[in-house]
Amino acid sequence: MLALAFLASTAEAQAQVSAALQELSGEADAAAAVEQHWIWEFFSYAASEFLWVGAWTAVKITALSMAIGLVLGLGLALMRLSRLFVVRAAAWFYIWIVRGTPQLLQLVFIYDALPYIGLKFDSFTTAVIGFALNQAAFSAEIIRGGILSVNKAQSTAATALGMGPVLTLRRIVLPQAMRSILPGVGNDTISMLKLTSIASIIFVNELTFRAQQIVGQNFRFFTVFAAAGLIYLILTSAISIAQSWAEARFDLERERRPRGETLRRMFGFRLNEKPGEDVPAPKPLAVSPADAHVSDDDVFRSLATSAGGIAKRGEPFVVCRNVQKSYGDRVVLNGIDMTVARGEVVVLLGPSGSGKSTFLRTINHLEPVDWGEITVDGRHVGYAPLPGGGLKPTRALAKARADARIGMVFQHFNLFNHLSALENVIEAPIRVFGIAPEAARALGLRLLGEVGLAGHADHLPHRLSGGQQQRVAIARALAISPKLMLFDEPTSALDPELVGEVLQVMRKLASAGMTMIVVTHEIRFAREVADRVVFMDEGVIVEQGPPSEVIDNPSQDRTRRFLRVVERAETAS
Ligand SMILES: Nc1ncnc2c1ncn2[C@@H]1O[C@H](COP(=O)(O)OP(=O)(O)OP(=O)(O)O)[C@@H](O)[C@H]1O
């Protein structure tokens, strides 16, 4: 009524009211004719075109404002997460102003103030702009919360596969963030639909306003407002249903069922299925890699060969010179010099905090170095040489990583939680390396078969054991045809009985001729598989050599002490 009073106080508004009432007169006559029973009256208002036209206006404002608000909100959320203070501050300031002032005032301000700077919009457009700008501030915080809820390890894994920031955001982070974003967005959409009624302050002829117009003429408060309420309820229920559907779609715990499977479970049949046709047998369980058939054209061997592992075996491949890295005052790598030959398997040993993982991450530029240089296959990853000597970071870092083709396997697997095992494996080949989906699928299935997981291609990571997840992670790293494989404690997060299946795959890869640098505490594996063992402590290489020297006959006291501790721990477990 306040809005109506305000409206009636201006000449333009009075013209609008009388036009609306004229439009309404047909409805009002109809209402008068059926006045005999309130229920009938209620339903005739609830079905009246006059109210539904207003509802449609509310829906259009909500849909447009929500879409624009979400896009702007995503931009603001990314600004809030920026490393640049000025960018973060600008986003924060916008959100602070918009969230801190009443929306009604914002609408009036846009409607009355913008014409002074030459921007005149009609009421509907003004409402869309006003609601969208308001929603952007609220969406920004919901989206930022969603992005922060996704484990950073997910983007690290994507980065290691050569995926750039935008691709990582679109394919990996946002789909997982949706689970926490959707309830907030659903809430805001419902609130906005109801709040569109305040747009009547700038003469938008929406649902509540139309209901008030009818009441202003016939004073049937109860039936008219109840009918408007019912229409709101129908529309907000539709939003809730859409929200539930979207939430189910992004629910990672949800079992992925083929089309018609739900009906079959409920009624015992499947759509498009001939009666009597047998339901296909479940796919066979994974065979253990130890039992897996290794064919002559073993995928691992062809990968290693294409990386030059056999033909050029022994040539320097990874060359690190005086690599230095600090975090604040803490020096983590203090002048590492190391060369890894093509086809060589190097195991890095060392106590916790000695800098092994950091060193590994500098090789594919997941961490930039402070000093020194690293080349892989003769090229710097993420650095370009300066004309007068020295190096400068390249802008196209994702491309540099992709070109280097360095596969990385992490301690906690870092599989993309929203993608099946096969989708995990083929994501980078399709999106980064442009392989046709069908060819990528064939390669993915072969690799999964090779790590003993042919029967688990459609399973989401949470349905796989730790050992199986790590084998998928190895297949995923191999799918980019790596020239070099980095393993960062690949078995440390596994139960002892699952360690063997992962080590078996790594053994197979090593014997195929793949160049590998492995950080591990598995002394037996190092003894069996490594060509060279490098022992690190406090950011320096203490000693290195064949396992028979470093493990069985270490020259340094520090190495002996470390090996004693590891052996004691192995005996205890
Ligand atoms: N992003 C980071 N910011 C600050 N400090 C870090 C960061 N990453 C690693 N460090 C520190 O650098 C040191 C070396 O870490 P790093 O993970 O390389 O050691 P590590 O030998 O691999 O140990 P672990 O076997 O426990 O993983 C540790 O003290 C760690 O706390």
Automatic annotation (TrEMBL):
Positions of the ABC transporter domain: 318-563
Q: Which residues form the ABC transmembrane type-1 domain?
A: 55-243
UniProt cross-references to InterPro entries, sorted A to Z: AA_ABC_transptr_permease_3TM, AAA+_ATPase, ABC_transporter-like_ATP-bd, ABC_transporter-like_CS, MetI-like, MetI-like_sf, MetN_ABC_transporter-like, P-loop_NTPase
Gene Ontology MF: a single term: transmembrane transporter activity
Question: How is it placed in the membrane, per its record?
Answer: Multi-pass membrane protein; Peripheral membrane protein
Q: Which Gene3D superfamilies match?
A: MetI-like (1.10.3720.10), P-loop containing nucleotide triphosphate hydrolases (3.40.50.300)
Q: Where does this protein chiefly localize? A: membrane
**One CC-aspect GO term:** ATP-binding cassette (ABC) transporter complex
Annotated transmembrane regions: 50-79, 91-111, 221-246
Cross-referenced SUPFAM superfamilies? MetI-like, P-loop containing nucleoside triphosphate hydrolases
Give a single Pfam family match. Answer: BPD_transp_1
Keywords in UniProt for this one? ATP-binding, Cell membrane, Membrane, Nucleotide-binding, Transmembrane, Transmembrane helix, Transport
The subcellular localization recorded is: Cell inner membrane; Cell membrane
Q: Which family does it belong to?
A: Belongs to the binding-protein-dependent transport system permease family. HisMQ subfamily.
Stored NCBIfam families: HEQRo_perm_3TM (TIGR01726)
Query: What is the designated name of this protein?
Result: Amino acid ABC transporter permease/ATP-binding protein
From which organism does this entry originate? Hansschlegelia quercus
